[in-house]
Design brief:
Rossmann fold; about 220 residues; alpha/beta; about 30% helix; 5 helices; globular
Length: about 220
């Protein structure tokens, strides 16, 4: 466990999975942080990386409460080794990142994923006792010729927050509402008016909704953005 304050931002050099090196960045938190956070990026075949704007704003939301935040590139993205595995190996990548956070901080984890990262993260985190809260940003329902199914959410016990735009081209409102309705409680849904899948021009409302839920659900201290 860390005893000393961590640098504001550093590269993680010891994160490896079955596909090889996993490129990652750690934003350090306060020494008394009650949680660590993990954020997953959108689909790598469509340019998604840990530097995505939505991922960055989610990271900043966790940072506002003094939490350390780990972001990483799925296999085959950025400098991460291996090749894209259509969500299967990416679930493994996410669990390896959770293992790393647990070793590094020995704290409960809060998770957030954007688009493909939310779908993968749900599969990796649901039922994992280390993960105390799950946030899905832009949950995909129909994207890239593929339909995403979430019937397994009926057995996902953790508190869950879904934030989507009501103009999301890959997550139609009816599809997202159906996924949330079928999820085990507690499951909260926030629809951002006028937001598309990438929250273009709506990143701040998305971030504020995330921060409000974190504060209310986990009784976090005052935020400092």
């Amino acid at each position: 466990m860390h005893q000393n304050p961590t640098p504001l931002l550093r590269s993680v050099d010891d994160l490896r999975g079955p596909a090889g090196r996993i490129e990652a960045l750690l934003n350090g938190g306060r020494p008394d942080a009650p949680y660590a956070a993990l954020v997953c990026h959108p689909h790598p075949l469509y340019g998604g990386t840990m530097h995505n704007k939505v991922v960055y704003h989610a990271m900043k939301a966790f940072q506002a409460y003094g939490l350390p935040v780990l972001r990483f590139n799925f296999r085959g993205a950025g400098l991460s080794e291996g090749t894209h595995d259509h969500g299967r190996g990416e679930v493994t990548d996410t669990r390896i990142a959770l293992d790393w956070l647990q070793r590094e901080y020995q704290l409960p984890v809060l998770f957030a994923g954007f688009s493909f990262g939310s779908s993968v993260g749900l599969r990796a985190c649901c039922g994992d006792e280390r993960v105390k809260g799950i946030v899905c940003l832009g949950l995909p329902v129909k994207a890239g010729g593929r339909e995403y199914h979430y019937s397994f959410l009926s057995g996902c016990p953790q508190p869950k927050l879904f934030i989507s735009g009501d103009a999301d081209e890959y997550g139609p409102r009816t599809g997202v509402e159906a996924a949330v309705a079928g999820a085990a409680p507690p499951a909260d849904l926030v629809m951002i008016p006028g937001a598309d899948h990438f929250f273009a021009g709506k990143l701040e409302p998305m971030q504020q909704a995330l921060m409000a839920w974190l504060k209310q659900r986990f009784e976090l201290p005052e935020a400092t953005l």
